[in-house]
C-alpha cells in the first residue's frame, strides 16, 4: 500500500494483518466501513476489526487499493476474490459510480460466463471462498453457465455437421476425439463436490452420454492417480492408509453415481469400468456401488479382454487367500448369461435393430457375443489355475458357468483344466472327475486329443473317451469321408475343424497322409498300452476272486462233495476192469446179448 503524505487516521485489522489507512477513501466506497464508523460510540475511533473477510487480507488489500483510486486489474485469477470482497464491503453504486462491484459484474458477464474454460477456472477459485461465494450465488451462476455453454457447443457442432452434409460417422472420424484444449479436461481441477454439481447440471441440460463418459474418465484418472502418486509410500494398515482408502472410496462411489445410463449404442468403456471396480474392491466401497459396476461390466462382457476381468482379491492380509476375486467374476458372467431375462425388464437396453435377429442362430449377435465370452472365460481359467490357493470347487463352478453351445472348440478349457490339475496334484478323484466332465471331447482339436490321450493327470475314463473319438476321426480321415459324429455336428451346428480350431472342410488323405500315419501309429501304441492296463486289471480281478474262494466258509462243503465224487468214480472204474486169471462173465462181456437173442432177425 503506498504511503500517503497524510498520516493515517484509522487502522483496519483483517485476521492477523493490520492496515494503516484513511477514513475518507474507505467511507466513500465501502458501505460496511461507513456503517461501522457511524455506529461506533466513539466518534474519534481509530481502529476497526473486519471479521471473516472472504479472501482474507489479500482480498481486502485489493479492495483498499481500489478505494484509493489505484488501478486494479481484474483477471481470471482474482475476479472471484474481488467479487466476494466487493459484496462483503458493500462497494455498490449507491456509494460511488463505477464502484468495484459493478466493475466485477461487468467482467463476469463479458469475460467469464460466456467461456467454459474461464467459468471453470473461476469456479475452482471459489472453493477457497466458501461459504460466502455460495451465499452471493456466484457458484450457482458459474455452474449454470458451464452447463448451458457445453450444450450450446454440442448443438453448434451438430448443426455444423448438417450444414456440410457429411455422414455423422465420417465427421466423427475427421474430428479429434479430445482436443488438447478441450474444456472437459479442465474439470479435473475441481473438488469432488463442485464436479458432481457440474456433471449433474450438464446431464440435466442434455449433454451426450459419450461426452459425459469422457469427462468422468478424465476426472477419475486425475483424481485417483493423484492419490496413488501422493500416498504410494504409506504403510499398509496405517492411519494414513485408512484415510487414503476413504478418499478413494468417496471418489469411486461418487463417479459411479454419475455414470450415464447403460446403453449398447454408447456404452461406458470397459477398461474404465474395470478400473473403477478394482478400485472399489480395494477401497471397500459399498455393496451397491460394486453391484452397479458388476452389472455394467456383465452387460457388455463381450467387449472385455483378459486384463479387464483379472480383478485382484482384497486379501486383508490373509496369506491363504486367492490372488483374484473369483466370486465377483462368477457374478459378472452370470449377469451376462441372464441378459434375456434382464432385457424383458429393461427394454430400453435393447436396440430396435437387434430385435430382428434370431438369438439362437449361430450368426445372431447373441451367439457371436457368447462365443467371445467363452474364449474370454477359458483364458481367465488358464490364468487363475496357476493360483495354488484356489479351491477346486470355485474353479469347477467357473468351468461349469457356460452352456454347452457356448464353445465351438474346447481346447482352451482343456488347457486350463490341465494347468489346474498340474498345480493341484492332490485334488480328490471325485473333483478331478467332475472337472474333466466339463470338457466335451468331441470338440477337441487333433493336438489337444493327442495330448489328452497321453495325459496321466486325466481320469482313465476321459482318456479312453478321447482315444475312441480320435480313432473314429482318423478312420474317417483315411477314408476321405465326412463324419457327422464329431465336434458337435450331430446337431448340425459345428463343421469339422483342423488342429487350429478354425472351421474347415474334410481332411484330404493325400495332403495329410504322412501326419495321419504318424498319428495312427501313436494311437495304436496308446491303444495297446490301454489294453495292457485293462489286462492287468482283469488279472487282478481273477486273483481277487481266487483269494475270495479260498477264504470262504462254503469251501469245506465243496471239498467234501468233491471227495465223494472221486470215490464213486473209482467204483465205476473197478467194475469195468477184467478179472486177472479168470473167465469173464458172459453177461459182463456181452451186456446186450439177451436183447439181441430175442430180437427179430
UniProtKB/TrEMBL annotation:
<comment type="similarity">
    <text>Belongs to the NPH3 family.</text>
</comment>
<dbReference type="InterPro" id="IPR011333">
    <property type="entry name" value="SKP1/BTB/POZ_sf"/>
</dbReference>
<keyword id="KW-0833">Ubl conjugation pathway</keyword>
<comment type="pathway">
    <text>Protein modification; protein ubiquitination.</text>
</comment>
<feature type="domain" description="NPH3">
    <location>
        <begin position="181"/>
        <end position="473"/>
    </location>
</feature>
<protein>
    <recommendedName>
        <fullName>Phototropic-responsive NPH3 family protein</fullName>
    </recommendedName>
</protein>
<dbReference type="Pfam" id="PF03000">
    <property type="entry name" value="NPH3"/>
</dbReference>
<dbReference type="InterPro" id="IPR027356">
    <property type="entry name" value="NPH3_dom"/>
</dbReference>
<dbReference type="GO" id="GO:0016567">
    <property type="term" value="P:protein ubiquitination"/>
</dbReference>
<dbReference type="Pfam" id="PF00651">
    <property type="entry name" value="BTB"/>
</dbReference>
<feature type="coiled-coil region">
    <location>
        <begin position="513"/>
        <end position="547"/>
    </location>
</feature>
<dbReference type="InterPro" id="IPR000210">
    <property type="entry name" value="BTB/POZ_dom"/>
</dbReference>
<feature type="domain" description="BTB">
    <location>
        <begin position="8"/>
        <end position="76"/>
    </location>
</feature>
<dbReference type="InterPro" id="IPR043454">
    <property type="entry name" value="NPH3/RPT2-like"/>
</dbReference>
<keyword id="KW-0175">Coiled coil</keyword>
Amino acid at each position: 500500500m503506498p504511503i500517503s503524505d497524510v498520516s493515517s487516521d484509522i487502522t483496519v485489522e483483517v485476521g492477523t494483518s493490520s492496515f494503516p489507512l484513511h477514513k475518507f477513501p474507505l467511507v466513500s466506497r465501502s458501505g460496511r466501513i461507513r456503517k461501522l464508523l457511524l455506529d461506533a460510540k466513539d466518534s474519534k475511533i481509530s481502529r476497526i476489526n473486519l471479521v471473516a473477510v472472504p479472501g482474507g487480507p489479500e482480498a481486502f488489500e485489493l479492495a483498499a487499493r481500489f478505494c484509493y483510486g489505484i488501478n486494479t486489474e481484474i483477471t481470471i485469477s482474482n475476479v472471484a476474490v474481488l467479487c466476494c470482497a466487493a459484496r462483503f464491503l458493500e462497494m455498490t453504486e449507491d456509494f460511488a459510480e463505477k464502484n468495484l462491484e459493478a466493475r466485477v459484474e461487468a467482467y463476469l458477464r463479458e469475460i467469464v460466463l460466456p467461456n467454459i474454460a474461464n467459468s471453470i477456472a473461476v469456479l475452482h477459485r471459489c472453493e477457497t471462498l466458501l461459504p460466502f461465494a455460495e451465499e452471493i450465488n456466484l457458484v450457482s451462476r458459474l455452474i449454470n453457465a458451464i452447463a448451458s455453454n457445453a450444450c450450446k457447443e454440442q448443438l453448434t457442432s451438430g448443426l455444423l455437421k448438417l450444414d456440410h452434409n457429411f455422414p455423422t460417422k465420417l465427421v466423427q472420424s475427421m474430428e479429434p476425439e479430445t482436443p488438447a484444449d478441450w474444456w472437459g479436461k479442465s474439470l479435473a481441477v475441481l473438488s469432488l463436490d463442485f464436479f458432481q454439481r457440474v456433471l449433474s447440471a450438464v446431464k440435466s441440460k442434455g449433454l451426450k452420454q459419450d461426452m459425459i463418459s469422457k469427462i468422468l474418465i478424465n476426472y477419475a484418472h486425475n483424481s485417483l492417480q493423484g492419490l496413488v502418486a501422493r500416498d504410494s509410500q504409506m504403510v499398509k494398515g496405517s492411519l494414513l492408509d485408512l484415510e487414503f482408502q476413504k478418499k478413494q472410496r468417496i471418489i469411486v462411489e461418487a463417479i459411479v453415481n454419475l455414470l450415464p445410463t447403460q446403453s449398447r449404442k454408447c456404452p461406458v468403456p470397459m477398461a474404465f469400468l474395470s478400473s473403477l471396480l478394482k478400485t472399489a474392491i480395494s477401497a471397500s466401497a459399498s455393496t451397491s456401488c460394486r453391484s452397479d459396476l458388476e452389472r455394467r461390466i456383465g452387460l457388455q462382457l463381450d467387449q472385455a479382454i483378459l486384463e479387464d476381468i483379472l480383478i485382484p482379491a482384497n486379501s486383508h492380509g490373509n496369506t491363504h487367500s486367492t490372488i483374484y476375486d473369483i466370486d465377483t467374476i462368477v457374478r459378472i458372467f452370470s449377469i451376462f448369461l441372464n441378459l434375456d431375462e434382464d432385457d424383458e425388464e429393461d427394454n430400453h437396453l435393447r436396440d430396435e435393430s437387434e430385435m430382428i435377429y434370431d438369438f439362437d442362430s449361430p450368426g445372431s449377435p447373441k451367439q457371436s457375443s457368447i462365443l467371445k465370452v467363452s474364449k474370454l472365460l477359458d483364458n481367465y481359467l488358464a490364468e487363475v489355475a496357476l493360483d495354488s490357493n484356489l479351491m477346486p470347487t470355485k474353479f469347477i463352478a467357473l468351468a461349469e458357468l457356460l452352456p454347452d453351445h457356448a464353445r465351438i472348440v474346447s481346447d482352451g478349457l482343456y488347457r486350463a483344466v490341465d494347468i489346474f490339475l498340474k498345480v493341484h496334484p492332490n485334488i480328490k478323484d471325485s473333483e478331478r472327475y467332475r472337472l474333466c466332465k466339463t470338457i466335451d471331447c468331441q470338440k477337441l482339436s487333433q493336438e489337444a486329443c493327442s495330448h489328452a490321450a497321453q495325459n496321466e493327470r486325466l481320469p482313465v475314463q476321459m482318456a479312453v473317451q478321447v482315444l475312441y473319438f480320435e480313432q473314429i476321426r482318423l478312420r474317417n480321415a483315411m477314408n476321405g469321408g465326412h463324419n457327422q459324429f464329431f465336434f458337435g455336428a450331430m446337431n448340425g451346428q459345428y463343421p469339422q475343424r483342423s488342429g487350429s480350431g478354425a472351421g474347415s472342410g474334410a481332411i484330404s488323405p493325400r495332403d495329410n497322409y504322412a501326419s495321419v500315419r504318424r498319428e495312427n501309429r501313436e494311437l495304436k501304441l496308446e491303444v495297446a498300452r490301454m489294453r495292457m492296463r485293462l489286462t492287468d486289471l482283469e488279472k487282478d480281478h481273477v486273483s481277487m476272486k481266487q483269494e475270495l474262494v479260498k477264504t470262504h466258509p462254503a469251501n469245506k462243503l465243496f471239498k467234501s462233495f468233491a471227495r465223494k465224487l472221486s470215490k464213486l468214480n473209482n467204483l465205476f472204474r473197478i467194475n469195468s476192469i477184467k478179472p486177472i486169471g479168470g473167465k469173464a462173465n458172459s453177461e459182463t462181456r456181452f451186456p446186450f446179448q439177451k436183447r439181441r437173442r430175442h430180437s427179430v432177425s
